[in-house]
């Protein structure tokens, strides 16, 4: 089996969150979904598990944060073009998410940011493949 990542996110309303994630291009895997959880496929190796608070609580004794006011993580999503970055951000806002800041363009990298309806933060970005191949110091020099 390939190495995979499953991002478990606590959500207030599984159906509403499922609709949001479908609107930004993810596909629901019905085999691993039920009324308390939706398995949303981002790629062959990355899935987002949208879990209602009661079900999420069975995995941890810790308090679930309010992601609208507390940041627990930011999820960076790589895209092949600036247009794809703009498209997912526009889809997120149209589906009930919130834009977190204006576009940032530093030449070799272009990024946006949005939050889902539960406040989980996402940073879609595009990076020039040649600049990425040169490594972090050359990218920092290019941005200066």
UniProtKB/TrEMBL annotation:
Domain VOC: residue ranges: 3-127
PANTHER family in alphabetical order: BLR2408 PROTEIN, BLR2520 PROTEIN
Protein's organism: Sphingomonas qilianensis
One protein family per Pfam: Ble-like_N
Protein's recorded name: VOC family protein
Xref: PROSITE patterns: VOC
